[in-house]
Amino acid sequence: xxxxxxxxxxxxxxxxxxxxxxxxxxxxxxxxxxxxxxxxxxxxxxxxxxxxxxxxxxxxxxxxxxxxxxxxxxxxxxxxxxxxxxxxxxxxxxxxxxxxxxxxxxxxxxxxxxxxxxxxxxxxxxxxxxxxxxxxxxxxxxxxxxxxxxxxxxxxxxxxxxxxxxxxxxxxxxxxxxxxxxxxxxxxxxxxxxxxxxxxxxxxxxxxxxxxxxxxxxxxxxxxxxxxxxxxxxxxxxxxxxxxxxxxxxxxxxxxxxxxxxxxxxxxxxxxxxxxxxxxxxxxxxxxxxxxxxxxxxxxxxxxxxxxxxxxxxxxxxxxxxxxxxxxxxxxxxxxxxxxxxxxxxxxxxxxxxxxxx
Length: 358
Ligand SMILES: Cc1cc2nc3c(=O)[nH]c(=O)nc-3n(C[C@H](O)[C@H](O)[C@H](O)COP(=O)(O)O)c2cc1C
Known about the structure:
Mean pLDDT: 91
Largest sheet: 4 strands, antiparallel
Bound molecules: flavin mononucleotide
Number of helices: 14
């Protein structure tokens, strides 16, 4: 970067503000194209570029889009009618790599990408001497219909564009101070010495605790299944029942995924904030262990079936609570839920087929 540019850039940034009053003077196509070029150069997750900018300057269509930004009871966005151009920013499905990244990080990458590109657009508009205002408040369904936007894409922002009709070129703006909005090396207010050093250990310890608690439940349940192999072989089973050896590896994998899910929730929410979710997780673990005793040790097929239904309910509640803290942790429980549904059907069928034994 060339020296001396920073000050000019900061001047431009200070100049840009949301303009809510426009002259009727038209905007040249070349100016709009330079703003689009600035948006085109924006960074995006995995260079996915998940955006389409729809420039609306046809008066009839523009009036319809403007109406979709200012309808309803709130006296919002009436200035959109004055702007000679409206630009609708449409979020497109991201590349697979960006989608995987977004899911793992629990971050809406396409929204972030669109916002960055939109700001590039607005800064270039300021450079052109044009005013803009980003609008997040509009009837998205209406805009979708007016511009024939397909279902997979989503209009996320509308930018008004035109010559400012305001009296003042620069406006006083309210902003947090640098001290309020930034910090160096540590989160504001964090104790000295907090952070990096113990983080790795704490995370490892958390994972260990989650694995141990989950293994404990598996061991308690496992104690009931000491003779399960022979017993399972004795039972009349439906043709779709898997062979006995399948259960060990499947449960090992499911318990590991469960433990990792609980650990992720703990890591994200902290023990205090995620206490409710982790308590429900612990209760479902206990219900999981109890099922093995009901079915294999005490041979109460009917009760075992009812209890597995209760377990499914508890797992659904765990998933709901985990999702609020960390969606990817909830996903980790989906194979467990699917397996439980299968196990419930199998348990019911085996109970029905073995009236004397269960
Ligand atoms: C995502 C987003 C949505 C916004 N939605 C609206 C809106 O619907 N109507 C409006 O008048 N301004 C809207 N704004 C503009 C903000 O109110 C404005 O950026 C903020 O008050 C700071 O003022 P400034 O842009 O003049 O610096 C929006 C801004 C952003 C970034």
